[in-house]
Specification:
single chain, alpha/beta, TIM Barrel, 10-stranded mixed β-sheet, 3-stranded antiparallel β-sheet, 15 helices, 15 strands, about 35% helix
Amino acid sequence: MKLSRYIKIFPFEKKPGYVLLYSTGKASAALVKEETRDSIGKGTLSPENKATLLKLGMIVPDGETEKREAAGFMDRINSKNSGLNISVILNLDCNFDCIYCYEDGMKGRLYMSDETAGLLTAFIKKKFRPGKRSLNIDFYGGEPLLSTGLIKSVSAEMKSFAQSRGASYTFTLVTNGSLFKRKIAEDLVSMGLKGVKITIDGPPEIHNACRPFKSGAGSFDTIIKNINETCDIVNVAVGGNYRESNFEKFPLLMDHLEREGLTPERIYELKFDPVMKRAGGDRPAADYTDGIMTVNEPWVIRAGTALREQILKRGYMTPKITPSPCQVEITDSFVVNFDGVIYKCPVFIGRDGFSIGDLKNGVRDYSAAYNLGIWKNEKCVECEYLPLCFGGCRYMSYVRDGGMDNVDCKRAYLDAALEYLVKQDIQYARKTI
């Protein structure tokens, strides 16, 4: 038996004589005695420890076999995937004027037609192959609730279809939250709505400057009111986008949530991310030029770990550190734009060279356009962080390099942050999901 290639060993100061083993492939952690760790190399593991560490992915019978199997990781995930996930851009209209909107150059009164919606449901039915057990649609915009009628009609048809196949139908919303009133929430929950993601970019003064209504009025109070009215009937996840100049203010948002009664018991998830830089050639929104080009920037590492600590210590749920392949590598995951053009990731809608087909003609081969399997190289497969990275974010590579010929390596970020993040998950074990 050998230590897995995809493992990290961290000191554990709280318990002298022990070390923390973390499997990046299984997202599992084990606190073991130092002599147990040493016995792995000596081949003297007890049968009990051997069985446990094998199950947790900490040890493997053969290192070369593990390495070869790593190249087929995504194939195994895709072969076992019993769900179909479709992201639908219902429109490119919005009642907000966010300063960093990645759709800014494309926005307007552009809505999915009833004809295109019919093609969408036909496409989904065709892609829902025998053996599929779940169907989820993630409705985006623009602002998806400007197309509430279409959400209802598509959901009614898809729910009936899924049930006829002995499968489940659910849908989620990515919304600015300003239109998510209780009556709308009640109607949509009855049709399969299982979760809503709403963005709040910090305390009121920061959020209102970043995400105002088109009129220029602040949107913070409206969003807070709507969350309070709806979080008892549907899971509401709150996200937020920070910059180097304002991330230290985000704990004030958490203070505000608590004062408004939006305590950990009422918010499904809380997670903050840095604003990404827009790709070269894009028309900057309101001359907005801020944003990151890599998660390896030192301030991003510092901000991300610090804000996650604040989230967890207050009792809010936040995603656990876990293997996270890029969406483009998931076979049964598609993004459909309002006009019926199909992509693999929402940030690429409307960009030349990244459509992979359309609802009328179906999906064509997109392996070259998105450089599928870019991580299947010796350096990545040898890397202990492979299951947490898989070549990183295609969009980041595109922004930085103008294409996807290079991986978006996260080694510097994971070298600096992973130990801290794993220990956060252990310390706040009941608050990660």
